[in-house]
Amino acid sequence: MSTNRVITVVQSEDDVIQELCDMIQITATNAIEKDDVFKIGLSGGSLTKFLTIGLQKITTDWSKWIVFFCDERVVPVESADSTYGIYKNSLIGVVPLDEDQFVKIDPHLPAEEAAKDYIQKMAVHFPPDCLPRFHLLLLGMGPDGHTCSLFPGHRICDETSVWVAPVTNAPKPPPSRITLTFPVVNNAECCIFAITGAGKAEIVKRVLKEDEQLPAGRVKPTDGVLHWILDSEAGAHIKDI
Ligand SMILES: O=C(O)[C@H](O)[C@@H](O)[C@H](O)[C@H](O)COP(=O)(O)O
């Protein structure tokens, strides 16, 4: 089954941020026109920097945004490892988003409970009897091909019975996390990978060659579009795919 995949290679990291935020603005406008709400899922890592820089420049009805996490580290919000903590400090007060527009984990719970709790919180915004369908999921990818907190060889990559799964032994610190599972990721209307740097060129090539051993290679929206936005370094081997 071929996915509706679009690969965009631009020159620099700044160009990736511009391309990414242009796509976010368009997707948000279409979602708000269609559903009067914009349900977006954010990831951590370098994406936090891209959005901190780029989201300030977009035009959108911020009041219609509901912001979820594709994955989150189960650490206190004050911790430097908290993805929500980073977005809270870098976006709230900078763009017109309120804290209560973020659907956050309860970091005081162990990962197993935090995952169940997050499903309950998602169920407030999605019909309970079908898979949640995000308008947009923003994804990163590690040099090992992981995305969200779906790590190579980890059993939760095959998890299909829950919307959100706990991770207690993530190879990328911190070890305790929660993550959306593939059925939810692949039910999104749109997924965007924003990837930069020479360190990712080899793994990008492998993933775009559909190496399904790699979690990022299993992101294939069943009824949606998949975008890869790459800078010239991360896209160095594009011609080989
Ligand atoms: O919380 C996390 O760790 C992320 O959600 C994770 O999936 C991230 O997107 C990748 O590890 C890429 O991170 P970098 O872009 O920083 O390489």
UniProtKB/TrEMBL annotation:
Keywords: Hydrolase
InterPro entries attached to this UniProt entry: 6-phosphogluconolactonase_DevB (IPR005900), 6PGL (IPR039104), Glc/Gal-6P_isomerase (IPR006148), NagB/RpiA_transferase-like (IPR037171)
Record field: catalytic activity: 6-phospho-D-glucono-1,5-lactone + H2O = 6-phospho-D-gluconate + H(+)
Record-annotated Glucosamine/galactosamine-6-phosphate isomerase domain positions: 12-228
GO molecular function: 6-phosphogluconolactonase activity
Record flagged with keyword Translocase: no
One GO term (biological process): pentose-phosphate shunt
EC number(s) stated in the UniProt entry for this protein: 3.1.1.31
Pathway: Carbohydrate degradation; pentose phosphate pathway; D-ribulose 5-phosphate from D-glucose 6-phosphate (oxidative stage): step 2/3
Enzyme class: hydrolase
Pfam family, one: Glucosamine_iso
Role according to the record: Hydrolysis of 6-phosphogluconolactone to 6-phosphogluconate.
PANTHER family hit by this protein: 6-PHOSPHOGLUCONOLACTONASE
Family membership: Belongs to the glucosamine/galactosamine-6-phosphate isomerase family. 6-phosphogluconolactonase subfamily.
Protein name: 6-phosphogluconolactonase
